[in-house]
Amino acid sequence: MSVSTSRKIRSLMSEQNLKTRKRFGQNYLIDDKILKKIVSTSQIDSKTLVIEIGPGLGSLTQYLVESAAHVLAYEIDESLVEVLQDMFAQNDNFTLISDDVLKRDMDADVQAHYGEAEKIIVVANLPYYITTPFIMKSLEESRKVDRYVLMLQLEVAKRLTASKNTKDYNALSVIMQYLTTPSFQFTVPNTVFIPRPKVDSAVITLDVKKSKYTLPETPELLKFVKACFKQRRKTLINNLHEAYGIDKETLKKFLHEQGFTHQIRAEAIAADELIKLGNDFLENDQCST
Ligand code: SAM
Hints:
There is one protein chain. Helix 8 (171-179) runs antiparallel to helix 9 (219-228), helix 8 crosses helix 12 (271-283) and helix 10 (236-244) crosses helix 11 (248-257). The protein has helices at 5-15, 32-42, 61-67, 81-87, 106-114, 131-141, 154-160, 171-179, 219-228, 236-244, 248-257, 271-283, 285-288; strands at residues 28-29, 48-53, 70-74, 94-97, 119-125, 147-153, 180-188, 193-194, 201-208. The chain contains 13 helices and nine strands. It has a seven-stranded mixed beta sheet with strand order 4-3-2-5-6-9-7, sandwiched between helices. The chain starts with a helix and ends with a helix. By secondary structure, the chain is of the alpha/beta class. The structure holds S-adenosylmethionine. S-adenosylmethionine is lined by residues 24-29, 53-56, 59-60, 74-77, 100-102, 125, 127, 130.
């Protein structure tokens, strides 16, 4: 019978005298059923290149190397490098980059270590403190990633996958739906981690809409979306007036022309409609001046 991940992690930590580091968001996943469920959700096959953020003590990595063509992993904690190199010494489809993923050009790393790949999937039990910066940086900069399978704090997972007229719907939900097809997969209780975090987690998938956007050219659009949700309880007119200094009558006229009432709030507008509204707003002479 194979040793459970829970036992492996516990004995590794005591043998090597490893402490979990809070500042790196280290909460190790120890439940094999959930680890396998993440891998099956990932839809990895023998041609997939997986990019793993933060392999930690290899809980997830051990399953990823079994099914993927290659696993390229970024780990910020230097004290884990030797452990990981030893653990996967027999796996020639494992490459470890000992660095902060936020400082890396992932596409250049893929090119350097792997060349061409048919499908690239990012899989990560993300450290909570880099969730949003990592997702935004990666969506902005990477042209190669097809899919993200991410474990996040439950609350953040709900926001990233929320639809209009729900309490979790915000600027990030709209941006995610603009750039990807987001999908909430399953909840993960806080009891399956060492150490146990305060809150539950969830796994989401983001399927990138490659042809639909060119993010570096759309910072103005992202600014518009954020402005719309700046104060949730305020109407769109008030939020846009504050962000852009355009008089309210002009904004009212613009919204009417677009088929919205002047009392509308951003939370009641679906992502694709809000993006269309943003494009029209930015192209409208009276609004852009
Ligand atoms: N994948 C392991 C698991 O599921 O048990 C560990 C997940 S733990 C939540 C997050 C991991 O990300 C830790 O190993 C941590 O050291 C690493 N990490 C934190 N910040 C990072 C960063 N900026 N770049 C790369 N790795 C990072």
